[in-house]
Write a structure and sequence with these properties.
The protein is α/β, with parallel strands linked by helices and about 425 residues long. Helix content is about 40%, strand content about 15%. The protein contains 17 helices and 13 strands. Strand 12, helix 14 (about 355-360) and strand 13 form a beta-alpha-beta unit.
């Protein structure tokens, strides 16, 4: 290779981005699939991409590294419950992550959902800041700016520094101590002066508004990128065979999907509301199908079918497509993949106003009512179940355009380039 050719080659090489994403899981769970989608797109574009993750199966993929054993993660979870600090500890796995970052010298580090007892968040953030590493932080929940709970619900203490948590055990799983103010101070110190190199991405406009209210992340650079749905899986499809399997015949189908379904009155996912809605419709030709692990304390109505956990995305998509309506009963959601996936499969959505869902949903194909208003939820569900004029294929097409994984990955990659060009 001649000198001028070598110079051009080196220039081209420098133009390639080297991105490292860090997430709790990889290729599984909502954030694991989103992380994988960005990683795969970067590789397809010819960029350098690596992923560091902490929990789940150890995968044999080039550039994909698991840094934490399940035993070590459980030990750190126990430590967190004893000390009351959810995001500290994890010295060994955090050392591994920082060692990898030093060795690989990425142009940009993208932090996805980094809870899960595999990394010391305070230490990692501070190291990225002190080493002037361009960093994208995606907020999938609220814990990065509450410094404690994943969902603050109606509590506004995160705007003032936390402490004396009124919901300590549920919010932090601490057995003994209220260390919420200490954790807040540690998180705040880690983000202090981390301004020029940090970009905070929220998955919904509602979440961005919340993040900007927190002293921890106020004043940082913020933007919104909606989560992406794999529209090769979640799209309109005929579900006649599935309806035959469940002997649905001429009955309407209401679908509810969640990681864990509980009928406890105070459960934030609202399982009790779903069962109450089913009870109200027990004399109507309506069947309720519920996907997810479940813990049930009382009897369920005869028109409810508990499917258990559905791990296969294609099977989950088939149930969305079979349904005439999907119901969301959560008290709080920062985005709601259930909402996006349902619409991509051509199925309208009703639910409670929970923050993210009502903002990211397509208004003409969804109805949201005040949280806890079962009468309003019932009316909204019946209105949709009696509609005969909506076009499922049209809903699916518009939703797939709105939530496509391709659109999400393109926006993230464009944001990476924007950040690196500004350096």
């Amino acid at each position: 290779m001649q000198t001028w050719q070598l110079a051009i080659f080196k220039t081209q090489q420098r133009c390639l981005m080297k991105i490292i994403q860090i997430n709790c899981v990889f290729r599984k769970g909502s954030t694991g699939r989103l992380t994988a989608a960005i990683h795969d797109q970067l590789l397809q574009n010819g960029e350098e991409s690596q992923v560091i993750y902490g929990r789940g199966e150890r995968l044999r993929e080039k550039g994909v590294l698991k840094v934490c054993s399940e035993i070590y993660a459980k030990q750190n979870a126990l430590r967190a419950r004893i000390t009351g600090l959810m995001y500290g500890g994890c010295e060994l796995s955090t050392h591994k992550i920082i060692h990898i970052l030093k060795k690989e010298e990425p142009d940009l580090v993208h932090l996805q959902c980094i809870n899960g007892n595999f990394v010391n968040i305070y230490k990692l953030i501070a190291w990225l800041r002190d080493n002037c590493i361009a960093t994208v932080l995606t907020l999938h929940a609220e814990f990065m700016y509450t410094a404690n709970c994943g969902h603050a619900f109606v509590c506004e203490a995160f705007q003032k520094g936390c402490g004396r948590c009124p919901n300590l055990k549920q919010a932090t799983k601490s057995w003994f101590f209220d260390r919420t103010h200490t954790s807040y101070q540690k998180m705040s110190a880690a983000f202090d002066n981390f301004d020029e190199q940090l970009t905070v991405v929220s998955v919904s406009p509602w979440l961005r508004e919340r993040a900007e209210l927190s002293p921890i992340l106020s004043g940082k650079k913020h933007c919104v990128i909606l989560n992406g749905v794999d529209d090769k899986v979640f799209h309109y499809q005929e579900a006649s065979e599935l309806r035959k399997k469940h002997n649905v015949k001429d009955r309407k189908v209401v679908f509810h999907a969640t990681a864990m379904f509980r009928d406890f009155a105070n459960d934030p996912k609202g399982g009790a509301y779903v069962l109450a809605l089913a009870e109200r419709m027990k004399d109507a030709p309506v069947l309720f199908f519920i996907a997810g692990k479940y813990e049930i304390q009382s009897d369920i109505p005869d028109n409810v079918v508990l499917l258990g956990e559905i791990q296969d995305p294609e099977q989950l998509a088939a149930y969305y497509a079979m349904a005439d309506l999907t119901v969301i009963a959560s008290q709080r959601e920062t985005f709601s993949m259930v909402c996006a996936e349902s619409l991509c499969c051509g199925t309208p959505v009703v639910g409670f106003c929970a923050g993210g869902p009502e903002q990211i949903a397509i208004p003409e194909f969804s109805t949201f009512v005040p949280y806890g208003d079962l009468d309003a939820l019932n009316r909204a569900a019946e209105q949709w179940l009696h509609k005969e004029d909506y076009d499922s294929e049209m809903i699916s097409k518009k939703a797939c355009d709105t939530y496509s994984q391709r659109r999400m990955t393109e926006k993230y990659i464009a944001e990476y380039k924007k950040i690196l060009c500004a350096k």
